[in-house]
Amino acid sequence: MAGEHLPPSSPRDWEELLALRLHRPGETAPPFRVVRSDGRRAIVAIGHRALERGRAAWNGPAPVPGAPALATRRTWGTLVGAKAWMRDRSASAVERSS
User: How do residues 23-75 score in pLDDT, each as one tens digit?
Assistant: First the structure.
């Protein structure tokens, strides 16, 4: 899964923000992993059985006031497409700033 408009700067910040949104009282949150982040974009690996829960939690309202809004953008079955998406976005950002 890949998303944008995500403000954290370090992988640890990303993990904390995403985990906070997945938390449900009395339930164990599904495991996920921040694969790569670049500015306001990130690629997150999450199991296919937890995909709907992750998407709903990350696109839903912020669990605490003032928390940044998140938006998932794409879902891939493998990381190949997600990494290409990240590369293309970086290349187009460089072209726009030139």
Answer: 888 988 899 999 888 777 788 999 999 999 999 999 998 888 877 788 888 88
The structure's pTM equals 0.72
Give which of 19, 5, 22, 27 is closest to 57, Cα–Cα. 22
Amino acid at 93: A
Which residue, 26, 75, 85, 84, is CA-closest to 47? 75
Among residues 17, 20, 79, the alpha carbon closest in space to that of 46 is found at: 79
Q: How far apart are CA 2 and CA 14, in angstroms?
A: 12
88: Cα within 13 Å, side-chain hemisphere: 6
Q: Comparing C-alpha atoms, which of 61, 8, 15, 59 is closest to residue 34?
A: 15
User: In angstroms, rounded to a whole number, what is the distance separating the alpha carbons of residues 9 and 40?
Assistant: 8
